């Protein structure tokens, strides 16, 4: 079966995805992760190794390996690895060639078309060099698209945005930052104005901030390491890896302790989130300015935007979400893992090109210097005017995008140690002794988690819960009483009823309790929301109190008794229009009506999350069903 292949060669990581029809899925590139490090090792036999294989080979001969070579594109100075010099295009082509080989091995056939992605701010010279990569990698059918375009394509396909939406893409990758204003039109992403960016700013720079904090606490011990010495180079490589992990941990923890070895022995330092955010704020400031420039070039104001889309692994840093919300006051949307969205969108564009033109024409890409830029006059300005005259009426329509990601959480593959509901309404459990063994990404997926639940018809809300649906007068103007379970072979599935359309969550009441309402997005453009309802996960209830605090009840009986087993003290009281968004990247976020972030759990999962599970002791877990990995847990003691 023909498929489209999308390849995103990033500065620090490489991601790839396969698309069949309207469905796209990540291609596993790494040993223990979907993505692979963008590293190339030049062997003594002349072969170029890439990814995790290159990382392992570099442990013995670090001088033959190169990181961050994408940043060197356009620099005529050769990159010397071992006995010879390489152009950056040669190294990128080696990565692309290995990705295509892995796609062929996984599918048994060549891709029908390949799309490579590049930063939107690259000029004609670097673009011309980058287009040579396809030829060097022996690709017959390929084209190049910008990373914001690919990211927007994925978001549009996920139904996370309304039709004809105006969107800003905030793409903070490992080594570059891009932003662009996109209009969705006929399920296509159309660039408005000029793409903007900050070259040389990305996650690696944030990693350097962590290393600088470590260096200061150790009185310059890190600075004194000489990278040319093989032993010290290996120490530096391990320390950089530790710095990345510390950076990611600071997204969910207020402080983190780094324990590591230098050449003089073991060391331990303590880093805090406030200090880290204080230091990275100057690095993020130019990215905010770039978003403003992109809006200006499109002739639009921030209030015209329906949402800001996050892309790139570094966009998960909580300060990014905070600064975007503060500066622009628009919903900030993240669907799936930000590291993956560009590759997924590129794969969709590749399949679309194959379907429209066939393999003989899909590779033709216009000269970037001659390609016309879409005009912002006409349709775009008409759309902006329409937004300006109907913004109040569309307030709830645009806000629906914030929780459309709930539709992604369609499969609740409850792992070992997790409550399993068997469809009988009895709340039966299965043995869960092996949960701890699935928590590491290096372990093989458990057999019970690898098979997704078969789709089953959604039940009416009055019968799906095992308890009567809330009274009709508490559900004025809505057609979805709950997120209820469907049943198949012991799997409990999290689905929106009816169907799996995007939904919005609002605060309301049920039997005297403050609860949450999930409603299909199709109702949001016609009726106002009065905030009645709740989220149910299996037999458990997630409740938002009048104070803004979030409470978890394990069963209807616990809800009736007011006995919560877990709580998040958000401190968002006094904001009656506040609403909750549960992101697939693992964050619970409470927003004010104007889109400001009032509170976030900041779980910062390292990997995609496709299941929300409730453990027998009442803890929430965020898991990836296919890998069996537990990415985050509330860790609260149940009552």
UniProtKB/TrEMBL annotation:
Entry keywords, A to Z: ATP-binding, Chaperone, Nucleotide-binding, Stress response
Low complexity bias (residue ranges): 433-472
Residue segments, region Disordered: 359-380, 429-473
SUPFAM superfamilies assigned: Actin-like ATPase domain, alpha-D-mannose-specific plant lectins
Domain Bulb-type lectin: 520-635
Domain of life according to the entry: Bacteria
Pfam families xrefs: HSP70
MF (Gene Ontology): ATP binding; ATP-dependent protein folding chaperone
Family under the similarity heading: Belongs to the heat shock protein 70 family.
Protein name per its UniProtKB record: Hsp70 family protein
Native source organism of the sequence: Micromonospora craniellae
């Amino acid at each position: 079966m023909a498929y489209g292949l999308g390849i995103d060669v990033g500065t620090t990581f490489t991601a790839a995805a396969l698309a069949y029809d309207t469905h796209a899925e990540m291609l596993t590139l790494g040993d223990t992760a979907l993505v692979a490090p963008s590293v190339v090792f030049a062997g003594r036999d002349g072969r170029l190794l890439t990814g995790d294989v290159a990382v392992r080979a570099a442990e013995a001969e670090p001088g033959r390996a190169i990181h961050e070579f994408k940043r060197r594109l356009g620099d005529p100075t050769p990159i010397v690895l071992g006995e010879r010099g390489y152009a950056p295009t040669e190294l990128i082509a080696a990565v692309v060639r290995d990705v295509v080989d892995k796609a062929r091995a996984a599918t048994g056939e060549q891709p029908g078309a390949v799309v490579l992605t590049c930063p939107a701010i690259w000029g004609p010279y670097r673009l011309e060099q980058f287009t040579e990569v396809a030829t060097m990698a022996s690709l017959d059918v390929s084209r190049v698209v910008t990373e914001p375009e690919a990211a927007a394509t994925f978001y549009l396909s996920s139904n996370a945005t309304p039709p004809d939406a105006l969107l800003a893409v905030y793409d903070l990758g490992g080594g570059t930052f891009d932003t662009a204003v996109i209009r969705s039109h006929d399920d296509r992403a159309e660039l408005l104005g000029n793409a903007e960016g900050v070259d040389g700013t990305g996650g690696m720079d944030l990693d350097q901030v962590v290393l600088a904090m470590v260096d200061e606490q150790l009185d310059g011990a890190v600075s004194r390491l000489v990278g040319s010495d093989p032993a010290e180079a290996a120490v530096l490589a391990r320390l950089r890896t530790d710095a990345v992990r510390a950076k990611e941990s600071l997204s969910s923890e207020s402080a983190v302790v780094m324990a590591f070895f230098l050449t003089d022995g073991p060391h331990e330092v303590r880093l805090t989130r406030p200090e880290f955010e204080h230091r990275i704020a100057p690095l993020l400031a130019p990215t905010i300015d770039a978003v403003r420039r992109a809006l200006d070039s499109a002739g639009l104001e921030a209030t015209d935007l329906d949402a800001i889309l996050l892309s790139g692994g570094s966009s998960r840093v909580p300060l990014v979400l905070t600064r975007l919300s503060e500066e622009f006051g628009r919903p900030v949307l993240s669907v799936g893992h930000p590291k993956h969205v560009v590759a997924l969108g590129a794969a969709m564009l590749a399949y679309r090109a194959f379907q429209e033109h066939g393999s003989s024409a899909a590779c033709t890409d216009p000269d970037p210097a001659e390609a016309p830029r879409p005009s912002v006059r006409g349709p775009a300005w008409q759309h902006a005017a329409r937004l300006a005259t109907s913004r109040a009426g569309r307030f709830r329509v645009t806000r629906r995008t914030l929780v459309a990601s709930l539709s992604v959480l369609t499969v609740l593959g409850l792992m070992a140690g997790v409550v399993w509901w068997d469809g009988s309404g009895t709340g039966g459990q299965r043995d869960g002794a092996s949960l701890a063994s699935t928590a590491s990404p290096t372990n093989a997926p458990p057999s019970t988690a690898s098979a997704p639940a078969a789709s089953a018809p959604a039940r009416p809300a009055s019968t799906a819960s095992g308890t009567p649906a809330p009274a009709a007068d508490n559900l004025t103007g809505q057609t979805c009483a709950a997120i209820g379970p469907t049943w198949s072979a012991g799997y409990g599935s999290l689905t929106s009823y009816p169907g799996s359309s995007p939904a919005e969550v609002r605060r309301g009441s049920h039997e005297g309790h403050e609860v949450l309402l999930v409603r299909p997005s199709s109702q949001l453009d016609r009726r106002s929301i009065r905030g009645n309802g709740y989220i149910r996960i299996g037999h458990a209830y997630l409740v938002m109190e009048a104070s803004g605090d979030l409470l978890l009840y394990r069963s209807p009986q616990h809800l009736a008794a007011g006995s919560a087993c877990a709580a998040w003290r958000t401190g968002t009281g006094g904001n009656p229009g506040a609403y909750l968004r549960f992101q697939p990247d693992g964050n619970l976020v409470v927003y004010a009506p104007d889109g400001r972030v009032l509170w976030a759990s900041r779980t910062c999962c390292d990997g995609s999350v496709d299941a929300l599970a409730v453990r027998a002791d009442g803890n929430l877990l965020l898991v990836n069903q296919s890998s069996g990995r537990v990415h985050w847990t509330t860790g609260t003691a149940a009552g």
